[in-house]
Design a protein that fits this description.
The complex is a heterotetramer of chains A (about 190), B (about 140), C (about 675) and D (about 290). Chain C is about 30% helix and about 25% strand. With about 675 residues, chain C is of the alpha/beta class. Chain D has about 290 residues and is an alpha/beta fold. Classes of the chains: A mainly alpha (about 190), B alpha/beta (about 140), C alpha/beta (about 675), D alpha/beta (about 290).
Chain lengths: ~190, ~140, ~675, ~290
């Protein structure tokens, strides 16, 4: 997929203009999100701090961090936030900004994983797990593939690694692509 | 000469009219096209008043009341909403057009909103052009 | 009489004259129908300006006056008075607002002048049809109903009763005192709540001008300002209050124990009980829900009655005063009053709905009120702060903003929690010197007199302040030292670290919310509630105790969360408003009212259902509606709604308004 | 007969969670639930796609919704990820008109239109709320009496909600397990995260979370775990050995799809339920109640 680099719009505005991003103006910095996050202590900046940084205009700080890539999408922060901020959505909004600004993050494999996953969704409209995994490990770190062999084998042994990908009927596939191509053309909601 | 919309405003004494006063005291500038008639409550606005205004050549009618929940008379503003909404389809079918009638909630503290509302409504009417009912002797 | 209209255009210095060509407007006005004279003058509101009008009224025989100047909300009263001085009825005066609505908001001078002309012509056409109206006065009944016997109600009742006016104090529970009676100490002075409250309570109980109606509910209110009638249900107490001496023997005899509401379920009370030692009145009541005899009676059984009879074989006597009376029934009492003060207070937010805080799942997670009782010498532990297993807590976490400042529950700040939370840490420190105390806060709001100082004092006492909202209270231990503890999860936002704080006890500083039945009360006395459910005052700043219904005032936490000083101040304010009405002896009722023409009325009752004040009643014989002018506030909603045009809204008649519409469109 | 548009999702239909799809279809028959698979559905995009390209992800899940709208029935999926994404698409389209405009245009390019009327539901919701516990109990042939089950909901079936159960303390699966005769053990972490797809990119993080879950379940006496999501099942089941290796633990907890438990109780033979696909074998714990 081609990615677009954005005009230098200030990030606070950019984020607050995103679905899910509105919240950064509402935050009272209570820390409920960071405290609820199962992964916050691994993030370079926990969600509350990300919002503070965005307000302070420290964009590179945010986009070069691993934080949003460590979001597990468990939505605990979202249901607990006293200001109704959709923090999970905000995290993924940040993922997108980072992706579009082509800021790859060396300290986490998640962007690569998301990217390779998306490539399959985009190209064939389904996720063949074997293909996806191999694809990802090739893109990231082939050696890890070896480490994963035991798990893969046990899955295989229990008939849980179908090798053949599910494909849509040709006309359905054409329709799907037509929609996505149009979406591509319209892109620029960021 | 260019078309200057004539707009009749019905405003309740407690919120909207007070809001318009505030707009004045804060020297907010807005088009002179709306002429305000003070009522105790927007609930007093009835079909007769609105239609008469159009009959006399008004290009638009703006009804303003207290925001729901803040009505000085508890719920008069809701009656106003019911009537205005009820009247719109009729205005459509008699060719005046529903867009020439507008209802807005404006509280006593929203001087700015008065300005914006009058501004935007005047613009809307300007685009719509003179009311079909406007008689020549009402043109300026 | 043929209208003779005088029109006066005010320059207001340059405020109007700077933008509007006032002479031109005066010129224009003089040409309008029935206008006898049109003048412009520098300051119409000045004495010379007013005299100008007065003289013209006398000399030119004006019977209508129009002043084009500022907003009627500003100077209408001034000019009305001027007219009246000159013998002209106030309602034959009309104002055109050419300042706020014209000169101040328009830059284009010509446009401004045109608009001013339109507004003046509207006023002139309108006033042509205006008629003299009389503002009527009704006498004020000096009796007052105070609803709610908490500190707010007590204060208001005493203020009024001390000036020797009859007060009916209606309280739902069997004793007055409200929440304040449950508290241990009060912030920031730390004086014992009971010590400062009980004297007031006893005074109320003995006051010759206060009729105390406890265990009672307001059932119905009718009438209007100065002349209300109220129906009050006095629930059966099954104990003759005259005879009962409050000795408490019945409580000892009663075999039925239920959780004590007063002790927030931490302690027990009997089915027959005096809620707390310093209750006023200090007399027993029987709670019919739990009394086995009263329940038995429903199935025609005659059981128990130990409180009445005692235990014969053991030779223990029952109530010696013979006060027990199972035959009692609810009584409906009707009272005549002139004004009503609503002081129904608040209820504590129920934290069990915030699952992650573990209230109801874990022992030793308490609400604020529960802790008040736990720490209170008259409470279930006689003031010892203990865990449910009887141990003394070594560490306590106090969680702020529970149910407040949270869109999922209440968006507003409850205003008292910060301070009472600080108070708790002091009480704990006092009783458990080496306890670890944590305050988990978002912002500390110590805005009152002596509050910040109290906070500083607490800092000296050594409290761990953690800036972060608690996300969760869990019993799931992740380390050995967490075993058997309650672990509070939060982010310490000042160091951007997740923290797990193991403690023995968690106190949830619950917010204040409107009583569950506030809507019911609002309906009874016809006042409204703001979005948060608290009663709506007439004006948030300038009229904070009056309501949309004349003669009904609100005070205390039923109007919004507030601390005791504010509550007492507001209560006195409400009392002052009431006393002012009483001392004047009469109230003016709105002259701008609706009248129904019986001949035209079809009896459809649309107006009756629309009227927010219940001012319209239906005459079953004549099959027509009629307006009670004392209740009518002249909003005109009924006028607009009447399908047969039978209703006239005085001073805003259809004729007058249509004329005005005509005027603005010239 | 109750009719639904069935959206199995990649993992259940062609992936590692085939057993989920098998057992779901098998148990649906008994209480007259007709799961009609959506023809030529495509991947919902899951979280990764939304994290890379908002519009494209809305469009691809929008396509599924548009197709389902033609059918008219509620759309039911056994996969929590599909459930959350499809619902998110619905709410985003309502909330953000400017987005909807673009999505509409894109769908139109594929000759589709979506009016936003499809109700997206999780399979568990359908069983507990449309079928009902009593009806389920009435279909039980081998009661799972005595079986101690840890009901595991994970995240996306209850959050962000508002959904059919409490976002932090759900109950529906507990009740369902009990209606099969088994015992639902107290499981404080029942609605906490299993690491999701980060098992692939950040294995250590995920293993840590899985360890907590397994520990909480077994320390509360669970003999097996019931799941409602393919990814949760894979993480807890396929990675259990790695958790044991990493944390020197010795968990041996079978992780079953709730539909498999239902199937066993309904007396459906294990083949049709794909029980053999469990990596941590469930045979021993189910021995009592299995039909062969």
């Amino acid at each position: 997929m081609k990615t677009k680099v954005l005009n230098g719009k200030n990030l606070a505005q950019e984020i607050s203009a995103l679905p899910g991003g509105e919240g950064i103006n509402l935050c009272i910095q209570c820390g409920t999100c960071s405290a609820s996050c199962p992964n916050a202590n691994r993030m370079e900046h926990a969600p509350r701090e990300l919002i503070a940084l965005a307000r302070a205009g420290m964009y590179d700080e945010i986009l070069s961090s691993n934080s949003m890539w460590f979001c597990l999408s468990c939505y605990l922060c979202t249901v607990r936030c006293p200001r109704g901020i959709k923090i999970t959505d905000m995290m993924h909004a940040l993922d997108r900004v980072a992706t579009r600004r082509q800021l790859s993050n060396a300290r986490t494999q998640t962007p690569t994983m998301y990217k390779s996953f998306s490539d399959f969704v985009y190209s064939i409209g389904s996720i063949p797990e074997v293909g996806f995994m191999t694809w990802f490990y090739l893109l990231s770190n082939p050696l890890r593939a070896l480490k994963m062999m035991p798990v893969a084998l046990s899955l295989l042994k229990h008939g849980r690694l179908p090798v053949k990908a599910r494909r849509l009927k040709p006309e359905a596939e054409r329709q799907r692509r037509a929609i996505l191509d149009k979406a591509e053309e319209l892109e620029g909601i960021l | 000469m260019s078309f200057e919309p004539k707009i009749v405003g019905f405003m309740c004494n407690w919120c909207s009219y007070a809001g318009a006063d505030l707009a004045g005291t804060s020297r907010i500038k807005y088009p002179p096209n709306v002429r305000v008639i003070r009522l105790m409550c927007s609930g007093r606005v009835d079909e007769r008043l609105i239609l008469k205004a159009f009959a006399l050549g008004a290009d638009g009618v703006l009804v303003c009341g207290c925001p729901p929940g803040d009505c000085h008379y508890l719920k008069g503003n809701l009656s106003a909403r019911r009537r205005v909404m009820g009247l719109k389809p009729f205005l459509e079918c008699i060719g005046i057009g529903a867009d020439r009638l507008r209802l807005d909630w404006i509280s006593a503290s929203e001087g700015l909103k008065i300005g914006e509302t009058v501004e935007s409504f005047t613009e809307t009417i300007r685009k719509l052009g003179p009311s079909p009912l406007r008689r020549s002797n009402h043109d300026n | 009489m043929e209208p003779r209209i005088g029109v006066y255009i005010c320059h207001c210095g340059s405020n109007i004259a700077g933008t509007v060509a006032v002479e031109e407007v005066a010129q224009f006005a003089s040409g309008l129908d029935s206008v006898v004279v049109a003048r412009d003058y520098k300051y119409m509101c000045s004495d010379p300006g007013q005299n100008l009008i007065k003289d013209d009224i006398k000399e030119l025989g004006l019977n209508r006056v129009v002043v084009a100047s500022c907003s009627p909300r500003m100077h209408e009263p001034t000019f009305r008075r001027a007219c009246e001085d000159a013998g002209l009825n106030a309602y034959l005066f009309e104002m055109a607002n050419i300042r706020e609505h014209c000169s101040w908001v328009t830059e284009d001078k010509q446009a401004a002048t045109e608009k001013a002309k339109a507004l003046v012509s509207a006023a002139v056409r309108r006033i042509y049809y205006q008629e003299p109206l009389e503002t009527r006065e009704v006498p004020v009944n000096s009796n007052v109903l105070v609803l709610g016997g908490g500190i707010a109600g007590i204060q208001a009742a005493l203020e009024i009763a001390d000036s020797e006016h009859q007060v009916y104090l209606v309280e739902r529970d069997s004793s007055i005192g409200g929440h304040m009676a449950q508290f241990d100490k009060t912030f920031p002075t730390l004086d014992c709540s009971a010590c400062i409250l009980t004297p007031k309570m006893t005074t109320v109980g003995q006051h010759q001008y206060i009729q105390l109606m406890t265990y009672s509910e307001l059932e119905e209110v009718s009438g209007y300002v100065g002349n209300f009638q109220a129906k009050i249900r006095m629930k059966a107490k099954y104990v003759d209050q005259e005879k009962c001496t409050g000795c408490g023997r019945c409580q000892e005899l009663c075999p039925i124990s239920v959780p004590s509401e007063f002790d927030q379920g931490l302690g027990k009370r009997k089915a027959i009980y005096i809620p707390f030692p310093y209750a006023v009145p200090n007399k027993a009541v029987i709670d019919a829900e739990s009394c086995s005899h009263l329940k038995g009676l429903k199935e025609g059984k005659d059981v128990c009655r130990l409180c009445e009879k005692g235990i014969e074989k053991k030779g223990i006597a029952g109530c010696e005063a013979g006060a027990i009376d199972f035959s009692q029934e609810d009584k409906i009492v009707e009272v005549e009053i002139g004004s009503i003060i609503i002081a129904t207070g608040f209820q504590q937010f129920d934290p069990s709905v915030i699952y992650e805080y573990g209230y109801g799942h874990y022992d030793n997670v308490l609400t604020g009120l529960q802790f008040e009782r736990l720490s209170n010498a008259s409470g279930p532990t006689s003031g010892e702060i203990l865990l449910t297993d009887g141990r003394t807590p070594e560490s306590v976490a106090i969680i702020h903003c529970v149910g407040s400042r949270d869109q999922n529950y209440h968006e507003y700040c409850s205003r008292v929690c910060c301070m009472y939370s600080l108070k708790y840490s002091h009480l704990i420190r006092e009783k458990i010197p080496n306890a670890q105390i944590y305050q988990l806060y978002i912002d500390l709001r110590c805005f009152g007199k002596g509050y910040e100082e109290f906070y500083n004092r607490l800092q000296k006492e050594g409290v761990n302040f953690v800036r972060g909202r608690a996300a969760e209270v869990t019993g799931v231990a992740e380390t050995p030292e967490e075993k058997g503890k309650l672990v509070v999860l939060c982010e310490d936002t000042l160091i951007s670290r997740q923290r797990r704080i193991p403690v023995d006890m968690v106190i949830l500083s619950c917010g204040l919310e409107p009583r569950a039945d506030a809507g019911e009360v609002a309906r009874l006395v016809k006042i409204s509630q703001s979005a948060d459910g608290f009663f709506l005052e007439k004006h948030p700043k300038l009229d904070p105790v009056a309501t949309a219904t004349d003669g009904v005032f609100v005070t205390g936490c039923c109007q919004g969360p507030k601390d005791i000083p504010d509550t007492v101040a507001q209560a006195s304010a409400a009392a002052a408003r009431v006393l002012a009405m009483i001392s004047k002896g009469k109230v003016e009722v709105e002259a701008i009212t609706s009248v129904i023409d019986e001949k035209l009325c079809s009896g459809c009752k649309i107006c009756k259902d629309l009227c927010p004040y219940g001012a319209i009643s239906f005459d079953e014989e004549k099959k027509v509606c009629s307006v009670n002018e004392a209740l009518c506030k002249g909003c005109g909603t009924c006028v607009a709604a009447c399908p047969s045009g039978a209703i006239t809204g005085r001073h805003f008649t259809t004729q007058q308004l249509l004329a005005e519409v005509e005027g603005v469109l010239v | 007969m109750k009719y639904y548009t069935y959206f199995p999702g990649c993992s259940a239909s062609h992936g590692g969670a085939k057993a989920y799809d098998l057992s779901a279809r098998a148990v649906a028959k008994a209480p007259d639930v007709d799961l009609i698979e959506l023809d030529d559905w495509n991947c919902c995009g899951s979280t990764p796609y939304t994290a890379v390209d908002e519009l494209a992800s809305l469009c691809s899940s929008g396509r599924n919704l548009a197709l389902a709208e033609k059918r008219g029935f509620d759309m039911v999926t056994p996969c929590s990820a599909c459930y959350v994404i499809l619902n998110r698409t619905n709410s985003s389209l309502k909330e953000y008109p400017e987005l909807k405009a673009k999505v509409d245009e894109a769908l139109a390019a594929g000759g589709l239109e979506y009016r936003g009327t499809v109700k997206v539901r999780h399979l568990l919701d359908v069983f507990v709320n449309d079928v009902g516990y009593d009806e389920i109990t009435s279909k039980v042939q081998n009661s799972l009496t005595g079986l101690k089950v840890a009901p595991y909901y994970g995240c996306q079936i209850v959050r962000p909600g508002p959904g059919f159960d409490h976002p932090e303390f759900p109950q529906s699966l507990d009740r369902l397990v009990e209606s099969l005769g088994a015992e639902a053990i107290p499981f404080p972490l029942k609605a906490r995260c299993c690491g999701g797809s980060l098992i692939i990119s950040e294995e250590d993080i995920a293993l840590g979370l899985i360890n907590k879950l397994l520990d909480s379940a077994s320390s509360n006496g669970a003999e097996c775990i019931a799941t409602v999501c393919p990814l949760c099942q894979t993480n807890l089941d396929a990675y259990q050995s790695r958790v044991n290796k990493k944390f020197k633990t010795s968990f041996n907890l079978p992780v079953l799809f709730f539909t498999q438990l239902m199937g066993v109780a309904f007396g459906i033979e294990s083949q049709a339920l794909g029980l053999e696909k469990c990596i941590v074998s469930a045979e021993k714990v189910l021995a009592g109640c299995l039909n062969r």
